[in-house]
Design brief:
heterodimer, A: about 800 residues, FAD/NAD(P)-binding domain, Enolase-like, domain 1, 6 domains, 5-stranded parallel sheet, elongated, B: mainly beta, Rieske Iron-sulfur Protein, 4-stranded antiparallel sheet, about 0% helix
Amino acid sequence: MVAKKKLVMIGNGMAGMRAIEEILDANPDMFDITVFGAEQYPNYNRILLSPVLAGDMAVEDIILNEEQWYADNGITLHMGKRIKKIQRGYKKVIAEDGTEVSYDNLIIATGSNPFIIPIPGVDKEGIISFRDIDDCNAMIEAAKQYKKVAVIGGGLLGLEAAKGLINLGMDVTVIHDQSTLMNMQLDQTAGDMLRSSLEEQGMKFSLSTLTTAVLGKERVTGLLFADGTSLECDLLVMAVGIRPNKALAEESGLYCNRGIIVNDHMQTITDASVYAAGECAEHRGVTYGLVAPLFEQAKILAWQITGQGLKSYGGSAVSTKLKVSGVDVFSAGDFQGSPEADVIEYLDRSGGIYKKLVLEDNKIVGSVLFGDTADGPNFFHMLQEGRDISGQRSSLLFGNSVLGDSGHSGIDQASRMAPDTIVCGCNGVTKQTITDAIVKEGCTTRKEVTACTKASGSCGGCGGLVEQILASVLGTAFDASIQEEPICGCTDLTHEQVKDAIKGKHLTMVRETMNVLAWKGEGCHVCRPAINYYIGMYWPLDAEDDRYSRVVNEKMHANIQKDGTYSVIPRIHGGEAKADDLIRLGEVAKKYDIQTIKITGAQRIGLYGVKKEDLVSVWRDLDMPSGFAYGKALRTVKTCVGSEWCRFGTQNSTAMGIRLEKTFDRSWYPAKTKLAASGCPRNCAEATIKDLGVVGVEGGWEIYVGGNGGVKVRAGDLLCMVETDDEVVEITKAYLQHYRETGKHNERTAPWLERIGLEKVKQVVVEDAGNRKALVERMDLYLSTLTTDPWQDRLQDEKQPGEMVEFKEYTAIEIPVQVVNA
Amino acid sequence: MSSDMNPETGTKWHPVCQVEEIPQFGGRTVRAGQTEIAIFRLGDGRIRAVDNRCPHKQGPLAEGIVSGDTIICPMHARKISLESGEVLPPDSGCVKTYPAKVEGGQILLQL
C-alpha cells in the first residue's frame, strides 16, 4: 500500500475548506489531512455573519462543517491554534502551543484581516471590527450597554454591520469617505437610492467625511473629522475593508505583494509544494474579497494538487449582492463605465427601481440593479459569455418577463433561464445542477436543494430564484411539498405527524386516534379515511376498520354513478375470463335489467346501472369475487397475451399478471394501485404507465414504477431488472409495502416517487437486501390478513336476518306514507 | 291516530325502525311513497332526517359521511347541516328537514 501524502492547511475558513472538500471529491484517499484554525469554531459561513448580527440566524445555523464532519473524513482539526512558523526547509509547521506537523503539501488559506485605519486613538476600548464570530458576539454584547454607534466604512461590510446594529436597537451613523455608498459596486444614482432606502430604515449617514481621530480617554467617546466637526459615540465599528493576511507567508520567505503571489494553478511562485487560495492570495495582481472567486480557486487548487492534469485559473468576474433585508442591490463588472461608454438605463425614482447596463461593442461589460434584481444573474451570465445583445437593446432591461408572461412571471423567468446560467454566484451552481437535483435527487424544498447542491447556502441571495426553479420544475407539486399542510381543517397535524402518532402510540381505531390527537370535531371525508388507512397499514392484525370512515364507494363495495346507481365489477384475474363466468355475467345482466355491460379501461367487465337494493342479489347471483374497482386498493393487473400465444412474446405475461393479481388481491394502498404485465418490449399492456409494471425481456423482466396514465401522464422509471417470476413478486411486494408505509393517503405512486426519489426507492427496495426482506415480511403479514371477500361478507350478513343489521343499508326502509307537501 | 295530527301542517308521527337498525355515524334510506328520506344516527345519538338528494347533483345523502351534525355528500363533498338543512359555505342551497324523535327505542318521523 502506498503511504498517503501529508497535507496541512493553515486556515479553517470558507476558501480553504472548500479546497479540502474539492480534494476529497477528487481523491478521498490521497492525503492525510491536518487543518489548523485560529478561531475556536469549525468552518462557518462568514458571509452569513450579518444575519447572525441582525438576529435572524444563530451561530449554529452558519456552521458549514460540524466537527463530526472532520472526524468522518479523517481530518485532524486543530481549532484555536495559530501557526506561528512555517519551516519550509523541514516541510513542517509549528503552532503557538508548540504543536508541530510536517507536510508534503501545504495550503495557506489565512484569509484577511480587517483594515484598521491608522489614526490617533484607534487603540481605545470600544472599537470593534466586523470580521468573525467573536466580533459579532462583541457587538451583540456592546448593544446591551451602549446606544450610540459610529460605523466607519460605507461599503458592503459596513452597511451590513450597520443594519445589524439597528436591529439591535442602536442609534447608528455610517461614516464614509466617499460621496457614494458602496462606491466599489455602485454608481452615484444607485448609491443615492440605496442611501434613501437605508435612511428610511433609520440609518444615518455622514458622507464625504474623512475621520482623523478617535476621541476619548480609555474608551471611545466620539470621532473627529477632517472638516473640524465631530460626532459623539460610545461604540465604533471599523469596516473600511480587508487586507490579505500574508504575514506568516512573508516571514517564511514566500514572495508576497499585496497578497501571497500564486500562479494560475494556485501554487505559490516561490515553492511549488505550497499553495495559497482565498483572500490571502494574489493572482495576476488581483486579490478577491468575495466568495465566488475563492470557490473557483479552490476547484483549480484541488485539480492541481491531486494531479488531475493542468487546469488554469484565469481570474474571476465578480458580481455582488447586498444582504440587507428590504434592499435589493446587484452589481457586476465595470458598472461605472467610462464617460463615453454605451449605457442603457431605466430609472424610476419614486418606484425605487434603477437598472443600468454598460455595453462595449454591444456586449454587456457591467451592470447595476437597484430595487429589482431578478435579472442580475441573467445579465451576469450574458456578461461572462460575452453575448451580443444588439437585437435586444429595447427589451433587455425589462427582463425576461417582457418576452411573454403567462401570469406567473417568477416561474416564467426561472424556466426561461439558460441551463448553464449561474444561479448561485457564491458557489458557482448552475440552473442545470439545480434542475438535476430536483429531477434526479428528488429535492422538493429549497433546503433540500441547498443540501444537495450548496445553491443559496452561502449568502442566500439566490434563495428566491432557487424556489422559482423548484416551482417551474415541479409545477403544482411544489406548493404542496414545500409547505407541508395539515391533513385538513379538522387538525393542525400533517400526514406524517398523524402517522407517527398511530405508529408510536399503537392507535388502532379511528375515533381513538382523533381523541388522542385532539381532533376538532368528528372528522371529515378527508381525514377519517386517511386515519382509517393508516391504522390498518401499521396494525394489520389489530386495527378496527371503520366503515363509516370510508367514502361511499369503499363502504358500499361498488362505484356510485352519477344517477345514484352503482357499477359492479368482479375480479377476473389477469383478465383471463372463464366461460362459466361470462355466461353468468350475461344472465345476471338480463335478470336485473342492467343497462350497460362494458369492458372497462382496465380489462375487466363492468355492469353499470345496478340499483342499490339489487347489489347484494347481483353479487349472490354472480358468485364471483369483488374486483375492488371502487377502492384505494389493488385494482387490476393488465396483461397482454404473452409468450403462450403471441409470436413476439418472450415471457408469459398473462400467467405473471394472474399471479400478481392473486398475490395482491384485496390489498389496500394510499391510493388506487394499478399493475400491468407485458410479455415483450412492445409493451401492449402499457406497463410503463402503471403504478408498477413489468415488461418481459429475453431472460427476465424489467420492473417499472411510478407510471401514470391519468391527468398528468408520467412514464414509469426502471426500478430494476430481475430474472425470475419469483423475483418479480418479491420486488413488487417490497415496493408496494414501501409505498404503503411512506405514501400519504390519496397520493398516487407517481407524485410519491417524485417526492421520495427514485434513487432512494431503489436503495430501500432493491439494493438493501435486508430492508427488502423486512418489507416483504411486513407485506406477507398484511396479505395473510386478507382472507375474506367483501361481497361474500355482505352476503353472509344478509343471510342472518335479525342478527346482523349493520349492512341492511343496501335496502331502503319502506313506510306506507305519502309525504305531505312533497 | 288523529290525535297526533299536527293541525297546522297536517303531518303525523310515523314509526320508522328501531334505533339499532341505524349504526352510529351511519345513515339509511327511508322511502315513503315517492319521497326518499335520509335518516342518520349522529355520534351523540341524535336522530336527524333530511331529503335524500343533495341540491347540487342529487347525490344520495344517506351514503355520505356523518361529521358532528353535518352530512358530507358522497358525490362531491358538499357539507349540509342536518339541523337546518342548509348547505354550508362556500356552497349554497338547502334540503328539506324532517322532525325525528325516539320513543321506546323506536324512531319516529313527522311526515
